[in-house]
Amino acid sequence: MTELADRIKQLPPYLFAEIDRLKEEVAKKGVDIIDLGVGDPDIPTPNEIVEVAKKAIENPKNHQYPSYVGMLKFRESVANWYKRRFGVELDPSTEVVSLIGSKEGIAHLPLAYINPSDYALVPDPGYPVYPVAVMFAGGEVYKMPLKEENGFLIDLDSIDKDVLKKAKLMFLGYPNNPTSAVADKDFYKRVVELAKEYGFVVASDNAYSEICYDGYKPISFLEVEGAKDVGIEFHSLSKTFNMTGWRIGFAVGNRDVIAALGKVKTNIDSGIFQAIQEAGAYALDNAERLNAQIIKTFQKRRDQMDEALRKAGFEFNTPKATFYFWVKVPKGFSSAEFTKKLLQEKGIVVTPGNGFGDAGEGYFRISITNPRIEEAVERIRSAAL
Description:
Blueprint: H1 6-9, H2 15-27, E1 34-35, H3 47-57, H4 72-86, E2 96-99, H5 102-113, E3 119-124, H6 129-136, E4 140-145, H7 161-166, E5 167-172, H8 185-198, E6 201-205, H9 227-230, E7 231-236, H10 237-240, E8 249-253, H11 255-268, H12 274-285, H13 287-311, E9 324-328, H14 335-346, E10 348-349, E11 351-352, E12 363-367, H15 373-384
Parallel strand pairs: 1-10, 3-4, 3-5, 5-6, 6-7
Antiparallel strand pairs: 2-8, 7-8, 9-12, 11-12
């Protein structure tokens, strides 16, 4: 048998695959598992979206290869939504590309810009796909630690200047996975200034912009003057409309970066099934109404989790957005030790902070995509005693 490539050998176990393995072991023992691990909404996709997809599936025109960059109808809906939601003007023909979920686009972008010895700036902790995609492209990963004393924002002043000179990409994501931190315009303005000074591309991951609470509305990186000159933004319908299994997202912004990502995609994939794009266009055209119903459910769960964790004595910041609580592990435990203890002894699945990067040590992430909030927190509390 031919030996595996070095890039595969060097891969750490994919975080959620390893959790699934441990979960299966515990489930075989008959343990009642409450899964607060992956951010996969348990609520069905709104029925209106499903009905649009059903009708579109029956159309023979949708049974052929789709456009590599996406149906113009879908890209127009993206542009219209960005204008309504963020006040950002986009040309649907040149500044929008459809994706088979935002993860796909994030994974492919480094192939367009990274050569061996080039650097990509990656948040730590962060979405595991960022560093893996850079490694697959042959680049060097420079980790930017997200610290509580900085509100889990990247400390832009601390980035090594020699690395900045060799950097081709910066990944960032706010509202943040896993910390749930949010960014403001002042932060993004500084990112734009730095990108212009050193000439790297900014890749903003805004997948959680619509999962927000207490009337707070996260902003887009592209709202900042000059942002479109230096980068693009990724978004996904997965979280916004409970469509994780549909695999549809998009990237928007600088037309040259969009074209570069599109060139990679034309050589690797064949686009999104058009029936799903029609459903996605409907979802975006009716986003305000459809998303509002979804947020009511998660607002209630966010409030329940917040109250229960505080009563149990855990340390954390109340999330303004995302599905996630970023919680400090009890004293005497590492992230991996506590999360393994929770699963094996209490049947609770949460995600160890160090699974998102070295700087995540000392924390664990809870997802509120499960309605058994109070029962779960009681089990977590008892394990910490």
